[in-house]
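Sharing in case it's useful to others searching the archive later.

Someone asked me privately for the predicted structure of HD domain-containing protein, so I'm posting the question and my answer publicly. Question first, with the sequence:
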Amino acid sequence: MKVRAVVNSNNISGLIERTLNYVDPRLVDHGKRVASLVFGMLTVQDKYTPREVQDICILSMLHDIGAYKTEEINRMTQFESEDVWEHSIYGYLFLHELSPLKEWAKAVMFHHVPVSGLPDTLEKNISETAQMISLADRIDMYLQSSSDIETLLRYLEQVRDLKFDGHILDLFYEAEQRFSLLSSLKEKKDFRRILPEIQLTEQECEDYLKMMIYAIDFRSQHTVTHTITTTSISVSVARCMGLPESQVRKIWYGALLHDLGKIGIPVEILEYPGKLSPQAMTIMQTHVKLTEEILGGTIEEDITRIALRHHEKLDGSGYPRRLPGDELTTEERIVAVSDIVSALLGTRSYKGAFSRERTLSIIEEQAREGKLDCQVVKVLKENFEEVLETVEENCRPVLDTYYGLHKDYQRLLGKYL
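And my answer, the predicted structure tokens:
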């Protein structure tokens, strides 16, 4: 019997929306409105396949994803902005390297470039997509601060074939006439309403989920591989303990999702170079609650519990619920130990990486104190070298992507800025 997919076409867009909402809901709502306008233009054009329309609309929703890293959010609320290359380039590279949208990602890099400035070498479909996103982006930005549609339409005609391709403008006018796009922008947008027939494979859904994890972990050089390391350790220990693959699969998802809520924690707290104040620690600990809100009942309950209980301790001293050991499953105990080991082995703004010996010493001490599961710690210690070899194997491509992405970012910034 085929196991039901944990993430699927029905829940992945909601997970993406709720996750990014905790950075800044303005960008998520803006992205959905842009996707709505682009969908209208694509429908009128009737040129692309349903799959291509789907990918372009998802790209449109995520077109500002680079701003989650580049801290441009406040500057982007202006109708006209000159500071556009940072988030455009980073967004292009991020989507090209870390999402199923590789084929279309370049359109994001040029979504603020006037049609008269687009490179001649740009593929026709990329140029069109960039222009559709650009037009939809500027229309929505304008309407967030003004209801004067007549002035907007006059402006669009003034910049026909200078800023916006006349053909794309005509597509918008026809779509507006047929679907009343501008009045519908005032409605609360749900991506499933914009694109109700979204169809993704299980692998594509997992790739989008990983994309969101990287959007969180890539915010700081100290957390780049934390989730992957925690997941890798968890799966390795589970297999060493002889757990069936059905349980290993749940552990993989639970570990992958465990820090999703950290996207809502300010970077200055995540990167604070020292011991956090009680107030800052309280904020940090809310990441578990944020994870719960993001998952929103859309993920299997036992997987959600694994994600939410990684800071609980067997003696009831953990958070957020101070659960005792008899309420914590083996899967939850494995991820709790793995999360600590990942944090100890990794660098942080306030510490360097701990040695393997010191890491084992710390978790063994916590096991003796009744905080961590003794059997999990024992199995991890007995297989530590093998586990870490797997961790290094899994982390290497992530680190290569992270540093390669930043190298390409600086190169492209120098070329276009």
